[in-house]
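Structure tokens please, single chain.
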Amino acid sequence: MPKKSALQKLILAVVVFVGVFPMGYFSVVELGIAEAASEVDSAEVRPARPFDRFVDNLAFGVGEKLTFDIKYGFITAGTATMEVVRLIEYENRPCYQIVTRAFSNSFFSSIFRVEDRVESVMDATGLYSWRFEKSLREGNYRSDRQYAFDQRGNRVVYKGDTIEIAPFVQDAISSLYYVRTQPLEVGQSVFVDNFVDGKSFSMEVKVIERETISIDAGTFDCLVVEPLMQSAGVFKHEGRLTVWLTDDALRMPVLMKSKVIVGSIVAELVDYELGRIDEF
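Here you go.
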């Protein structure tokens, strides 16, 4: 990938913020789904564990679409969306197809165009990840990466290696949707098992306080949460990440802020469509 100017790096950091930041910055394995499945199948066969987790979900459903402006200070650099696109069948189970997209706006696109897409396939009953993929279109750079989890065997193939994973592990996108379904109380934490960038780790999501905020999409009573990474060096990002979730059953993210060396990068909700809450 060619070197970027300081301005290009700033634009990239701002525009891709929502696509990568809900639970941290990450990179993924450069294996096709079919190749990953083949390598898992060829690995040592282990007894399958009972597959019986159920997570009550009153927070999100098919049709939910959240649209954010991505800002650095007073500069709006682009737009990002998070969408529960549809219900699909994967591994003989009902799953949510969740897609996030990030685009630079017309002004910044003339300098450095960004069109990124990230997808998670999330089990609709147990709310864990089955598949993760990322397609990057950043300036002249092109990259398509994807990997699949063997949730029954508690493993994933990453760069040719079979790695043990925690039961019901999450990816960087599904983590946020799972946290939205959990009981959140000020002063308490939720712990989420993740697999990111070839590493398995536990992430603590700390509930800091309640706060009412007014943004372009409206005024919302919120719970302020902060994900804390348990494994040093997993992420390149060194700033503090804060997320405002609505203080209701939806736990909808309406504001997301990450401290950088100078100032903050902010994703602010500007429009939303609520999804259909299904029962499984």
